[in-house]
Amino acid sequence: MRAFTRKFQLTATILVAAVVALAAPLSATANEPQSGNSHKGRLLAAKKESKMTANPVVVMDTSKGTIKIEVFKNEAPITAGNFLDLVQRGFYNGLTFHRYEPGFVIQGGDPKGDGTGGFIDPTTNRERTIPLEVKPELRHDSAGMVAMARSSDPNSASSQFYITLGAASFLNNQYAVFGKVIDGLNAAQQLRKGDKMNSVTMLETATK
After folding, report:
1. pLDDT digits (tens, 9 = 90+) for 115-163
2. Which terminus of the chain faces fewer neighbouring Cβ atoms within 10 Å, N or C?
3. Rounded to an integer, what distance in angstroms lies between the CA atom of residue 105 and that of residue 162?
4. 84, burial (CB in 10 Å: exposed 0-12, middle 13-18, buried 19+)
5. What b-and-e string marks burial along 97-123, b requiring 16 or more CB atoms within 10 Å of the CB?
6. What is the CATH number of the domain that holds 59?
7. d(CA 69, CA 117)
């Protein structure tokens, strides 16, 4: 892994990013009347709860086409929260993919465009980084998995991310998966070094 980690060079500082708050599900009391209206109300509440906890989708318009990414806000709240914050800031708009490894990954998100940069938080004038957040259920088991790049320091991920172009199980539990391509995988596989993210925006977002 030494050769691999050297290619994911980022300056390291540590910042714990956003915590995603979820509303508690509604529950019926033992004495609740079973009228048609109350039943309808529970269905509406369940539908609303489902919407509140739905993972958001990010739309990435690239040189090779449109890619839609489901962001695992509920499963990886720190990593997903960092990425979604950058999307909402417009940080990725116009950035390039600076690394292409055939059958392995396409990587981008560096404002310097050379693999050494990250997001400089305007409130601190320092690079914002997040702690490594790996979950056993979030794995590099197929093409289209989206995860954060980092240096040899596990807690150095900032803004650079990669999309797998094939299964890469040797990265499991070392790099934080936070999303998956749900549409446009062919476009992702067509990306090469120098291709651009024209815009990266939210298609839908969970209701607060």
Report:
1. 999 999 999 999 999 999 999 999 999 999 999 999 999 999 999 999 9
2. C
3. 6
4. buried
5. bbbbbeebbbbbbbbeeebebbbeeee
6. 2.40.100.10
7. 23
* DSSP label of 162: E
In angstroms, rounded to a whole number, what is the distance separating the alpha carbons of residues 69 and 90?
Answer: 16
Residue ranges making up the domain that contains 176 = 2-19+55-204
Q: Is position 29 within any domain? A: no
Q: Is 138 within the bounds of a domain? A: yes
Q: Rounded to two decimals, what is the model's pTM?
A: 0.74
Sheet with strand 57-62: strands edge to edge: 97-101, 105-108, 161-164, 145-148, 177-183, 65-71, 57-62, 197-204
The answer to whether position 44 is within a domain reads no
pLDDT of residue 61: 98
How many distinct structural domains can be found in the chain? Answer: 1
| Tokens at 172, concatenated | 């499991």
Residue carrying structure tokens 């993210």: 197
The 10 Å Cβ neighbour count of residue 172 is: 15
Distance separating alpha carbons of residues 58 and 56, to the nearest angstrom: 7
Helix (H, G, I), strand (E, B) or coil at 57: strand
Residue 26 lies in a domain: no
Contacts of 202 (CB under 8 A, 6+ apart): 56, 57, 58, 59, 84, 87, 88
